[in-house]
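Please review this one:
***
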Amino acid sequence: MKKINLFLIATGLLLFSQNAFAITTHTILVGQGGGFTFSPNVITTIVVGDIIRWEWVSGNHTTTSVAVPIDGEHWTSPINSTTTFFEYQVTVAGNYSYQCNPHGAGGMNGILQVSTVTDIQKGLIYNSLVISPNPTTDEIQVGFNSDKSFQATVLIFDATGNLKKEDKVRVKNGDNLISYNVSRFAKGTYFFNLLDGETALVAKKFIKE
């Protein structure tokens, strides 16, 4: 669960950098492929005010909150052939979990992470980090500047939130360059995340060809 939350926080930084202060609608498909699934069940949600939209594909399901932050609002709605969508606008930062009531015990659940804009304005590393080459076939080099020395955690996730690599690195004050071999990764989209403890400093998307 902790790694999923870190994925949500860190990749939230990426969405923030692309959308600035715009309100974003995040769509979750319900019952895709005839299964008991929310797709994606891990969603990047970064700014209070964003909208989560569940859209029916198949089956008879619900979206029902399980846990919300203090002062957050619970929700529940059927998602079926009659009620084909439901929208929820987040107003409080924090962790949210939800499920389909009939199928939650079978794993039909999801997690949302909501941050405020000020939570993710992280300064020099956030603004300077570059991944090259991107796209890549075998290796990435990650360069950035830091205004302090600290022990960092590197997490690389695929687009569905699966953790593909975890590493500890020593960040130095000044220029930094680290390399990772990704030749065995499947083709697709990945997120490189740099964290100080459990605080996500930056996330960058890269493509493996």
In short: The first strand starts at residue 25 and ends at 30. The helical segments are 2-19, 124-128. Residues 16-21, 118-122 have pLDDT under 50 and may be disordered.
